[in-house]
Description:
Elements: E1 2-9, E2 12-22, E3 38-47, E4 56-60, H1 80-85, E5 89-93, E6 105-107, E7 110-112, H2 121-128, H3 133-147, E8 152-157, H4 159-171, E9 175-181, H5 191-212, H6 216-228, E10 233-234, E11 240-241, H7 243-246, H8 258-266, H9 273-282, H10 290-294, H11 309-312, H12 316-320, H13 332-337, H14 345-352, H15 362-367, E12 371-377, H16 385-392, E13 398-403, H17 410-413, H18 415-426
Parallel strand pairs: 4-5, 4-8, 8-9, 9-12, 12-13
Antiparallel strand pairs: 1-2, 2-3, 3-5, 6-7, 10-11
Helix pairs in contact: 2-14, 3-4
Amino acid sequence: xxxxxxxxxxxxxxTDVTVDVPFDHFGRADPGVSLPQTLTVFAxxxxxxxxxxxxxxxxxxxxxxxxxxxxxxxxxxxxxxxxALEEFRVVMLDQRGxxxxxxxxxxxxxxxxxxxxxxxxxxxxxxxxxxxxxxxVEDAEILRGHLGADSWSLLGQSFGGFTTLRYxxxxxxxxxxxxxxxxxxxxxxxxxDVYGRTWEGMIRKSExxxxxxxxxxxxxxxLVELASAGDGIPLPGGAxxxxxxxxxxxxxxxxxxxxxxxxxxxxxxxxxxxxxxxxAASLPFSGRNPLYAVIHESCWADGTVxxxxxxxxxxxxxxxDPTLLAGEHAGPESLHEDPELTPFAEVxxxxxxxxxxxLYDVGALQAAEVRGAAAVYFEDAxxxxxxxxxxxxxxxxxxxxxxxxxxxxxxxxxxxxxxxxLIGLARG
Length: 428
């Protein structure tokens, strides 16, 4: 079943599309688990003109577990969307499990969105194994067929770039151009190796932050001490933050405007309501997008087991110094300290112990003729530059652009220029 609705807003012409897709595209589900047959995937197509015949560009959002952005009018002249609309119709795809595509969440201590699976944590973990990049790509292929497009282009930010690489590996002939921002995934590596490198980067960024704001190191130390006492710092909604979870504030340091945001948070009195509300909003793993915490590490699992790889890779220097911060280093603490994530705690442990299938076929990547370009940020906190460049070696048609002008959020910070540069590189 499919549905389609067209409407206009602020000069944009929008088409909302829903399509039903198989829950299991691969026929690899555990026969002992009863999974849904289908789920519904949503996309919003944005065009600058009515009845546009421009080619499609699919935006694949970072995450995992986060829906596509909603357009706001007027479109900012400096945004990547403004540049894309000059020559594309943009497809904002809500990846399965997010937004309006069978969203996964929790209400009153119960997991929602997977009611048909039942309440057994092992069955839910099995179901969540079908919410990775490989399934997202197959959903997108069904949407492409529904829209009657012989081929289309992709713009993948962060995890969206990981999904883009899977798309090239599985369906290169469906693609005209591919644009990566925020790096490319490592192929065939143990996630512990990847997280070891990202910890090194976070140590550097922590020290850079304290050099910029010298008084904040002591503020962070006192905050961790406060959070480590008793049950931690109570947060709105019944959540709490212990010392390990406070470290995750380091995710601010992966964005160009993040150091100032972290400084202003630390400027607040930890006993104030303002601080506790802002702290809750600042922590990266929450019930708003639970898949971000539950299956986060699986995006690095190319034929491996994750087993809380980020925590296993934590250097002794970080364990011993509470002021050295974490970035996207998911761990079990968030799932035990947030009542909206607590229903997923046992599920997440089972997911962490899962042996994941491979995501990428190196031979297929090397044979792909699709052209494109990749923005690889030299100081990227989340995707190490050396792994991005090693993967780019397998893509003969993709030109890397290595730059220290941007952090991981380059597409958001200066989107028009970033996308324009990538389009120019792809087309020579």
